[in-house]
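#random but structural
TW: two for the price of one
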Amino acid sequence: MDRSTLLSNIPLFESLTPDDLAALSARLEERAFAAGEAIFAQGDPGSTLFLIQEGGVEISVGQGKTRVVLATLFPGQYFGELSLMDGAPRSATAAAAKASTLLALDRDDFKEFIKKDPDAALLIMAEMGERMRQTNELMTRQVSKNVVEEVEEKATLGQRVADRVAAFGGSWTFIGLFGGFMALWMGTNAISAIAWDPMPFILLNLMLSTIAALQAPVIMMSQNRAGEKDKALAENDFQVNLKNEIGIDSLVKGQQEILARLALLERHAGAMSGQLKVQTLPPA
C-alpha cells in the first residue's frame, strides 16, 4: 500500500485532494521497530502521527498487573493523530506487537504543510469537527458487557446443578421442608408401637451425616463459582472505570485543544486568503 493511500485511510485526511495527499505523504519518515520495542510511553511528549505500514502495534495503559490493552492495530491503521494538533503528553503507551515498519508524520512538517495550503487546512478542520460529533455519539451509546451472563454461558452442567442445589439448600423452603420431615420422623418413631428408628434415632443421624457430607462440597463448588463471578465483575469494573477516566479526560482535553487549533487554523486560513487577494490585484 503506497503512502498516499495510507494517508487517505485516515479520517483526518480523507477529504484531501490527490495532490495534497502526495505532498503530505512526501513528508512521512519511515521508522522500524523490533517486536516488543516501545514506540512511545504514556506521558511522553506527543508530536508525531504514526501509520502502520507493516507489523502490528498494541495500545495500552498502566504497567504490570494494572496494564490494560485498549487496542491492537494492524497495517493500514494509525495512532497518535491528536498530537499533531496539541503536542500534549501521550495518554497511552504504544509498543510493537511484532517487527513493524511505521510511517511518522512530525508535527512541524504538518504545520508547514498547513501554512502552504489553506484549502487543505479547511478540509482537515471539517473532518475534525465530524470526528468530534461521532466520538460524542459513541460515548453516549456505548454500553459495558455483562460479565455475569458470559460466566453463566460457559458454566458446565455440574456447575449449574451445584448452583441450584446450593440455592435450594440455603432457602427457607428447604429449612421448612426438612424441619417438617425431621419432626415427622422423630414423632412417628417416638409414638408408634412399631418404630423403625427408635431413639436416639441412629438411622436419622446417618441420613443427616450423609446429606451434610454430600451437600458441603456442592456448596463449596457454588461458592467458588460465586467467587469467579465477583472476580470477573471486579475486573470489568476496573477496566470500565479506567477507560471512562481516560476517555473523559482525553475527550475534554482533546476538545479544548482542537477548538483552540481550529480557531488558529481559521485565522491563518483567512490571513492567507487575504494575502492571495492582495497579490492578485492589478497595479493602480
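TW: number two ↓
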Amino acid sequence: MTADTLTLTIDELAGGGDGVGRSGDRAVFVPDTTPGDRVRVQVLERRRSWWRATVLELLEPGPGRRDPACPLSLVCGGCGWHHVRYDHQLTAKAGLLARAFRQARVHAPAVEVRPAPTPLGYRCRARLQWRRRRDTTLVLGFLGRRSHHVVDLTACPVLLPHLSSLLPALRAAFPSGGKAGEVHLLGNLGGQLAIALHGVSDPTAAAALGQRLAPALRGVRTRPAGDKGSGQPTTWGSVEINQATADVPPFWTTPEIFFQANSAVNEQLCELITRWAGAWDGPCVELFAGSGNLTRGLARQGPVIAVESDPGAAALARRNLTDQNVEWLNQEAEHALEELTSRHLAAGIVVLDPPRSGARNLLDALARLRPPRVIYVSCDPMTLARDVAHLAGAGYLLARVSALDTMPQTHHFETVAELRLP
C-alpha cells in the first residue's frame, strides 16, 4: 500500500452524500460507499483536517449496501445514493439532521425521516443540461459528480415514468443549432408534460418540437439564453401543469418556477405545515412563498401576507390563489419584514421556506417583528440548525421537528421546525 492508498472502514454518510472513514485524526470522504463498507481507496485531495478519496476496491460490503437501480449511478450527479438500501438512507438522513443540531449546539428531539411512498419514479421536475459535441452529437443529462461534464441519459429511474420515457423522443426531435443550455422538465401524476429549453435561439423551435412530440407534451417554451429572466421566450401550447388532485381547485406550475420535485411527499408537507400552523391571532406572514405551494393551505385558516421576490412565481401564485385572503408583497423577504415592522404589524405566526443557503440575512428583522411562533421549512439541515441557533439567541425555543424524504436516492430531504416564544 502506497502513501496514496489506504484501507478504511466507512463509519457514516456525510451531508454531501459521501461516505466518511478515518485515517488517524483525519476524516476521509469517499463517494459511492455506505457505513460498514471496508474499502481500499486512493487519496485524491489532501487538506489539513480532511482528505477526499475514490474507491479502488470494495473489500467487504456494509449491511446497507445494495446493487444500484441505475446503471449510471457511479458517474451521474443527479442522485448519489442508489447503492444504499432505502431504510439505511432514511437512517442516514435522520443522523445528518441530529448531527447538524448537535454541531449548532441546539437541543433537538430525535427525529425519524418519514419515507416517500415511492423511492423510484417519483420526480416530477428536473433540470438537465444539454451540449453539442464538435461532431454536433447531442448530449443530454445531469452533470457528473463534481464535474461540468454532462452524463448522457436515455432513461432515469427517479423521474416519473412518462418523463423518463420522453427522453429518447426529445433527443431525436431536439432543435438543431446552439452549443449548450438547460432543459427544464415538468410533469404531473396524471401524465401531463411540459418542457422549457434554454439556449435555443430559433423562434420556430418551440412549435416544431411541440408538434413532433404531441400529444405527449402539453407545452414547450424556448429561450435563447440560459437565464430564465433573460431572452425573449417563444411558447407553443401551454407550459402550465396542474399538480392538484382531481377533487380540489387546480394548482398550476411551470417548468421554470420552483416546485417540490416529489408531488406525493409535497402533499404530506403541505398537510403538515397547515396542521402545525393551526389557528393564529393576527395575520400569518409567509416568506419565500413561491407560487403559493404552502400559501393555499395557510389561507384556508386565516389571513396571510405572502412575500415573494420573483415576479413570475408571484404572478402564478395569484392565479393559484384567486379569491383567497392573501395580501402579496412582491419584494425581498428582509425588506418585507422591515416594512411590516414599521407598520407595527402584530403577526400571529411566520412561515418561511428559504433556499438552501438559509435565512441568516433576515433573522434579526424576523426577531424584531416578534411573532409568537415561527415555522421554518428547510432543505438543508446545516443552515436550518445554524438559523435555529440564531433565533434561540433571540429568545425562541425549538418546540418540535419533523422530516420528510422528498428526494429518495439522494442526501436531500425536507425538515420542518417550529419555534415559539416562551
